[in-house]
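Final paragraph of the annual report: two paired records, presented back to back.
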Amino acid sequence: MSNQIRILVDCHVFDGTFQGTTTYLKGIYSKLILDKNFHFHLASNNSEFLKTIFGIHDNVTYLDYKFTSKYYRLIIGIPSIVKKYHIDFAHFQYIVPPFKSCRYIVTIHDILFMDYPQYFPLSYRIKYKYLFKWSAMRSDIVLTVSSFSKERIQKYFKINDILITPNAVNPIYFEDYDKKDVKNEICIKYGLKDYWIYISRWEPRKNHLSLLKVFVENEYHRNYSLVFVGNDAIENKEYRRYFESLTINVKSKVVSLKNIDFREGVLLLRGADLSVYPSVAEGFGIPPLEALAAKIPSICSNTTGMSDYTFMKSMRFDPDDLENMKNCIEENLNSRPDTYVLDQLKKTYNWEKSAMKIKYAIENII
């Protein structure tokens, strides 16, 4: 179609490990590419890998960047693609190129470093405060993933016109499964029987220490193991000191699993007796919703991005209040998500709804 709207999607994040931005782009564009009124140019350093993510479509062109350097990509690579393919819109995560030759869309997932500077190096805060604000001001469409992030961007960057395009839960989490069979498989693979799970990478703001303290000091280790699933990001020395002070028997009930792939992560979640997400600060925070979809008792922090999860009601706690966390655990440990919660989850967080918001925003500008 000669009158298709041409959209460049910067997919360089797929060149690294999967994270929130890759999940977001995969979810959004897996839906948008079904609309033949658009032609999508998906660019990364490995277009063959992108094809395995999004598939082959007659309205999708896969492109390889000529540069691995992010500076060359932004300054030279992307502008040349925009010119060559007559791009109408280009979509970026957080940072846009300095030279503008088409309309820009930017998704700023969070600016947590503004409210929680103690968790971020000074150099990071200075650099990204400028770059994120500059990128938002240069863009024609500004997106974020939660009401919390929208409010903070409006406050600090003085930009009012922001669309919320939330993340959504992968349909696999809603699939039926046999709990007994899953537990047997987990027992064979990992030697785990009854356990709680926390899925998150390791860094201080993720608050692993508070959950460990609640687990140990209330002697939950007598009946459960505590399983942390996630790779290292920023060392938490305080956690390490506390863990090393524990007895051998208690330590044996605290398990850390790293480099777990997606399918194995789903299996581990399904086998859990409780999912806890005590993070202090998140732009969104998808694991509590995935646990609900899998019909696992799920509790989470009530701060930042998770403050949007109003339908979780008594399933949320103050991450800085260990007694409140313990009470929330006691209240929810043996309860499964009810129909209302699952209906609200499906209604509020789905990729088609987020994709349509972007589509309408683009069409309103054209």
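The closing record of the year follows.
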Amino acid sequence: MITVHHLENSRSQRVLWLLEELGADYEIKHYKRDKKTSLAPAALKKIHPLGKSPVVDHNGQVIAETGAIMEYLVDQHGGALAPAPDAPNYQRYKYWMHAAEGSYAAIMVTALLLTRMETAPMPFFAKPIARKLTQGVRDAYLDHTMKGLFDYAEATLGDSQWLAGDAFSAADIIMSFPLEGFAARGNIAGYKNIPAFLDRIHARPAYQRALEKGGPYGLIR
């Protein structure tokens, strides 16, 4: 049996969606975020030492990290939702599988941290200093890096309906989180292919079933 240790409003929502697309049998153990810190509860450390979600237990084997979990589940289901290794678009698929939790997740976390720094309670005289520091990071790194990444996703989705080509794949599932986060932060103006992609994935029955089972899904901004 597959058990998903599912943290609300988190990356683990994609694991539920993948399992629904695969038609797999699984159970969910739900965890709530700390109301003050928004962090995962200490109970998750009983499952994996890092105490992060998603974590999957498959017949006693504990697997952490979204990308590793998704590749494991795809392999366990005969390579479903992935092109064959000798297919022309296989490396394209692999790129998006790893870029989601690499380049894209990193830039979204950086944006989140800067926003929290800018809005954190602090003495009035510290506010201008904090804003100057965060704006320096935005100007030197964040803004142009984020634009480059999401422009690339936009261009890719202009060439094909799905990120790895004409067929829906696990790459579309794993990339949903950074693309949804990008849209939720209000950065979507001027893009047309990313919003259309999000409309397509949100309309999928498996996506909707995962939401019903995983609970309300709100992105932390």
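The mean pLDDT is 93. This concludes the annual technical report; the extension proposal builds directly on these records.
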